[in-house]
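Pasting two entries for a bug report.
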Amino acid sequence: MFKIKLLFVALLIPVALSGCGPATLSVQPLSSPKPIPTQQQIPSFTGMWTVDMQLSGGIAGLSRSIQIASDGAVIAKDDRNGKMTTRQLTSDELAQFKALVNSASLKPVSGGPDACADCFIYSVKITSDSGNFSAQLNDVNLPDSGMSPVVKYLMDLLSQMLASG
């Protein structure tokens, strides 16, 4: 009985492998990082303003967003499950957020969105009476970008609101 099983396995392996074809290795060159050309100053918060962050990507394919307005209104959304929640920042929270954003500036970094297939992409947009600002960052270039504290604050608030709302 053992010899029949051994013969069966010995015949089955070459048949199974023949369907695979010859083994080839295909190497795709990595795309070169896309540097952010110069340091960008964030516009000052004058008049009406909004800060928007869109979070996308990752293995799970997340699509979430958060917006903070000059009056402290916050809107958090999860596009995958349709959840939306709102809240109002206290005057202290709003002052802390404004100080955090005012101390940030976007530094030149490399490692654009195509440098990491499963990274999160953080698209930050600031619209103010004094000007506009936008940046697209990912898990690779975020730590060196100068925007990490702002993104962390927004991510923490987004996670908190979507978990509880």
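Entry 2 (this is the one that rendered wrong in the viewer):
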Amino acid sequence: MLSASLLTLIAISCASLGLWRVGTDLDRAGEFVFLNGFLSHWQVWIGAAVGVQYASSRLTRYARIARGREVGIARAAEPSSVRAIANIESGIGAVPQITWRCTSHSGKKN
């Protein structure tokens, strides 16, 4: 998740450069760093900011899914306390019937 945080910072930097270039075009800001060429257009910087932020969000989502799987594997490896409860039902002149029910310590039925 650290790399996703760094990508967010890069996206903010690209967006600020894009806004600086827009300000330069509107004569509201000083001279832009790149006077001509591919990087002198505000659309490039804003587009890069959007793309990098999208990559950051996807990476964050992937990290959460991977972390959930690790937690699930770790929980499956832990021994859980399970108890069995036997209910014996019998009637007059009938054979007793035993019903088993397993519950974990959290109360969920297995």
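Dev reply: Rendering is fixed now. As a check, the viewer should reflect this: The helical segments are 2-25, 42-77.
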